[in-house]
Amino acid sequence: MKKISIVIPVYNRKADLPRCLESIDTAYENYEVIAVDDGSTDGSYELLQTMQIKNLQVLKNPGNRGVNYTRNRGIERATGDYILFLDSDDKLFPQGFDKVVTYVNENPHIQHFLFYVSSNQTKVASAPYTTSYKEWLTEHVYGDFTHVIKREVLLQFPFFEQFRAYENLNWLRIIKHTEPQMVVPETITWIDLERTDNLTKTLRLKSTEAIAGKFTYLSFYFNLYGKDLYQFDPEGYMKKFQHAVLLGIAAYKKKETQAMIDASPVPNKGLYKTFVSVTPSVILNKAITSKK
């Protein structure tokens, strides 16, 4: 029977931790729970140390380092054959973990499982199906899932710690390595999309810093996956590329934007470089940050 490690990044989730951890309700014995506190200031770490949760280990980062750093520390500590990622403001539905156990033990040849969460429960599927790297890269498959992945894969492809967010940079790398993935149309996780401190909301382009962060992410994305995307979906590539060019200008990173253009497979590079040179950064910055 496969051992499963549940890795839970925690940052200022004191109010949600009991709901999350107590939802791991199972008679299965071969599992562990690893909660990694990312420098919480609300007493989350202190609460974790007092909670009587079976097979729970508690780690603490040296300061607030972001979800990618935090997940890597949990992966390193884990001893399971597979790792299930659970956010600390979410919870497993009853029998949710047992469904994971069943599929993992019955399909040992699969390296990567994706289970439905509450936000995609309206997707219609009557049986497990497989997906591919191409489908993910071209966004024919997208959205939130609960990921369950072989630990050896995650050790080979750790999350990029220089980014505090943008986890998809590594998900695509993992998906390319593990295809085909098994998507299981069983809704096992409830996710909280209403929190005012939801990470997606904090990444909105309301400051030069946020714009620069998004541009850096896209530059990194193109370096890793640009050639593949251009081959699979040239139109989709161009939309993403043009968006990155605008962000680079607005972030006052014209030199870096020119370098991204030079490295790209797009035609008419000279026209893009001229556009970068003549477009005022301050005007574009204001136009983006003032959008509702």
From TrEMBL:
Domain Glycosyltransferase 2-like: 5-118
GO molecular function, one term: hexosyltransferase activity
Pfam families linked: Glycos_transf_2 (PF00535)
Transmembrane spans: none
Highest taxon above the source species: Bacteria
CDD domains in alphabetical order: Glyco_tranf_GTA_type
Organism in which the protein naturally occurs: Rufibacter tibetensis
Protein name according to UniProt: Glycosyltransferase 2-like domain-containing protein
